[in-house]
Amino acid sequence: MNIVKRTAGLALSLAIVSVLSGAGTARATDLTISGSTMLFPLEQVWANAYMKSHPGVHISVASTGSGFGISNAANGNITIGASDAYLTKDLRTRYGSLAAIPVAFDDTQVIYNIPGVKKSQLLRMDGPTLARIFMGKIKFWDDKSIREINPDVHFPHQRIKVIHRADASGTTFVFTDYLSQTSKEWYDEIGRDLSPSWPVGSGYNGSDAVVAAVMATPGAIGYVGLGWINEYHLSSMALKNLDGYYVVGSVKTIQNAGKAALHDPSFPDDFNRSIVWNLHGKDVYPDANFEFWMVSTALPARTMLEVKKMVIWALTKGQQEKYTVKTGFAPLPFAPLKPRLNKILNRLLPGNSMKIESGG
Amino acid sequence: MNKEHHGAVRTNRTALFLERVMGVAMEPETRAQQEAGQILVENATLPLSTASPRILSTDSEGKSRSSEGESLHSDGKSVLKNLRETSQARIHRSERLFQGTLRVGGFFVLALFATVLGVSIVEAWPSISKFGWSFLWTSTWNPHRQIFGAWTYIVGTFWVTGIALLFAIPIAILSSLFLSDYSPKWLVGGVSTLMEMLAGIPSIVFGAFGIIFMVPLLRDHVEPFLANTLGKHWDFFNGDSMGYGILAAGLVVGIMVIPLVATVTRDSLVMVPRETVEASYALGSTKAEMVFFVKLPAVVPGIIGSVILGFGRAIGETMAVLLLIGNQASIPTSIQDVGYTISSLLANTFTYAVIDPLYAAAEIELGLILLVISLVVNTLGRELLMKLMGGRLAGSVGGG
Amino acid sequence: MENGAHDPLVPKIEVKNFSAFYGKTQALHNVDFTIFERKITAMIGPSGCGKSTFLRSLNRMNDFYQGFRVEGSATLDGEEIYSPTVNPVLIRQRVGMVFQKPNPFQKSIFENVAYGLRIQGVKSRSVLADIVEKSLKAAALWDEVKDRLNGSAFSLSGGQQQRLCIARALAVEPEVILLDEPASALDPISTARIEELMQDLKDRYTIAIVTHNMQQAARVSDRTAFFLDGTLVEVNDTTKIFTNPEDSRTEDYITGRFG
To answer: Which of A206-210, A345-349, B244-248 has the lowest mean pLDDT?
Structure first.
């Protein structure tokens, strides 16, 4: 995983730009998906399954980073750009032609390595305290503010070692999104970003490296997505949500989050907003987010038709657990999503009546 | 004659070594002098170009041969003359073709360099024009607020490079001295092969080695030990032992640099003439004195050259550093701190930075800084080398 | 030379039943030979006859060849040179050597001569300067280099370099000086100067010289030894060897019938 990502560094991104610059004029059955390293494993299994059931379609998938996905989808170098983040106002101004399509559901969970605290012990954490830890303002695990949330846990006087991602990452975006929503301090000083200016700690390239560093470092605290928690059987902290419930992330609780967000009528139809601000209810995990495919509305009609077919497949059949949960994502909550998704699909190819009807 | 020949081969190897390793091009004239390798001519005041008896004799041979040719031609046969003219044209043509080919190769390299430099400057321009020189010494790097300063990353880069070289150079020199003068013969071949293999291992492997070996070693043993000893007197050795950081990155890069320095040092040790070594022994020196006073000074230029190579390797090393340094944009105040280097920042964030023109420009400007640092160090190193080698080159050339 | 004839002959180096081997190859066979104090002893013989091996055995310079070993006895002032308790470094401080090819160090002229003193721990600049000057004068090089003592030794001509090597050897005040074909790489003028120099040095040092050049041996030496195939064929006063050798093989060699 790491190596794949690294090869997708400087050299490759330049190479891809030149190789793919003719993609727009290539045969319509050639689709290129590139971007988010997080979505990459899911896109790979999707591409294989889709090519099997759709002979004549060729899909190439590359893991190049969300930034690359967004900018290159906008200028037509690739057909689909994968991104962990929605289109912020800034990006919408710069890349007006892009439509953001949510294709999977994901979250960020907080992992730790505290000597003397058992894995089975449930740890609770709220946003402001977490923010102060990641700003270096809370330095020891037996700090009063941590003990107050966890009265029945005995903490050692152990220095906290903050571990974060070094590369630009959707996981980081989701994590800092939660901190920004819950801590004014964090919002004012650091904010949410794929690659923020971390005040303290040490950074690692890729979630696997974060997991390794947390497991190896006594006193460590870090964050990774659902897939990593499942793969390494990690225990994560229960995070406090808007209604005061402490919830541990799981396929179930983040699907609940998706439903909760979409039930809110003020949630924008184009998905250009985080969902972290409106996650109410019991068993609703507070730090979940959509993964997106970015498609330029300026694609030629022939290509767009194929893209639309592929997108519809991914949103229906592609949501089966053998694809999504297997690679560390939660299936999209279908029913509340349907009307919004059909609006976006219509924007891609106006006049084309293809729609999603039922879930996978 | 045999021994003179040996001398010529040796000096010639020195020249080749310099050309190959240090990029010091020797004048062809100088090379011819070295090949002549003569120490026979007594008069030191003769100009260099005529000092070699071999060159003189070639000249006279050439003359006599051509005068024989004249006498043949005086028989009135112009066939040979015509032949010679056409062959001259042929020689000219092939020579021109060859030169042309070489020139294309040379220009290609130049053009490549100019392109890299040009494209980088153009792409970095938004950052260059916005921040000016202050880019170099400000340490805020905040893409969100569109403020970029390189200082943190420059410092981190030099930390890692410095630790790597401080660690690698003594070990490399000691090991090559051991191999050349103290180790049993059967060990030499094996260790040399290992060294070469070590030099060929991809850096990601060293990075992985660093994570599974160096990090736990530093975290559990070295760093607590440093803190309990030196750390009691100097905060510089204190810190939360974590394993990751500039020390881990520096040491692992150092391991990668060792074969580079050791190989070049050993090659130049081998080139120290047996006669010089014997001269030292004959004056009643011990082996240690011989090694220290004769061999070591003789290989100083080689060591400097290899250190420059090692510097180049260390300063640009990306993968291993990225895995070990802790990638935290802060200026280290302790040997146990984490940090960030230019190359690891680029590897971590460049694909994301392309989304924002100023962000991307700032990162490209960082790359330019790396380029300039390597160029400056290489040039300074070469100057120094020329100065040190100056007397010696004159010596091996102007034996007459 | 006439002086020498009146002095009693005092043995400096005595070699008895001495054999030398490079691995399985025997280079010297049961040599019995004495080198006398303050005499010049020349060793002649065709290439590969063992004369250089013999010379280098006297200050243990052959120790650096793998598989080299000796049998028999070689003593310096009665002390066994190859005794296990003897440090070869100390032997070499007493028995200096000048090689076939000039081999100055990559240092200045001054430092070349001072080298042996420095490693023996002489630090005083004035003492060093004094000995360097005396040594260079003894090697008849002082006048030519006194203005550029800090210049590179490699800026000297081949002949000057060889005299520098002699000065370097003299500086550590050895008792014996071994010369291994010291003039073979030099032109006639330089050779003549080296030969002159040897006559000057004879009053104070015991000198042994290996040479290919029979005229040179005849010119400079008091005694001459003829080696052939690793054996010492004959050793005697130089005049005797060159006018009336006892062994027919010596005569054959000297008259140019082989070699």
So the answer is: A345-349
For B336, the domain range is 132-389
| In a shared domain, residues B41 and B142 | no
The residue among B14, B35, B51 that closes a domain is: B51
Burial class (CB in 10 A: 0-12, 13-18, 19+), B150: buried
Find the helix packing angle between B296-316 and B151-177, rounded to 10°: 140
Task: Read off the tokens for C60.
Answer: 């243990």
Instruction: Give which of B280, B281, B283 to mutate to test C binding, by max C Cβ within 10 Å.
Output: B283
User: What is the domain-level CATH number for residue B345?
Assistant: 1.10.3720.10
Chains C and A touch (3+ CB pairs under 8 A): no
Contact B149, B381 (CB under 8 A): no
Chains that touch C (3 or more CB pairs under 8 A): B
Subunit contact C92:B283, Cβ cutoff 8 A: yes
Task: Give the Cα separation of C188 and C118 in Å (integer).
Answer: 34
Does residue B74 fall inside a structural domain?
no
Is B316 a member of any domain? Answer: yes
B194 occurs within a structural domain: yes
Contact A314, A46 (CB under 8 A): yes
- Given pLDDT bands bounded at 50, 70 and 90, which one contains residue C113? very high
Q: Answer whether residue B95 is part of any domain.
A: no
pLDDT for B76: 52
Domain count, chain B: 2
The chain B residues in contact with chain A (CB within 8 A) are 140-144, 204, 211, 215-216, 219, 240, 242-245, 319, 322-323, 326-330, 338, 340, 344, 346-355
Is the per-residue pLDDT at B263 higher than 90? no
Residue C6 tokens, joined = 């009146």
3-state secondary structure of A93: helix
Q: Average pLDDT of B167-183?
A: 89
Counting residues of chain A whose pLDDT is more than 90, the rounded percentage is 51
Chain C CB contacts of B7 under 8 Å are 101
Is the pLDDT confidence value at B20 over 60? no
pLDDT in tens, C158-174: 889 999 999 999 898 89
pLDDT digit string, tens, across residues A279-303: 888 999 999 988 999 999 999 888 8
Same domain, B297 and B183: yes
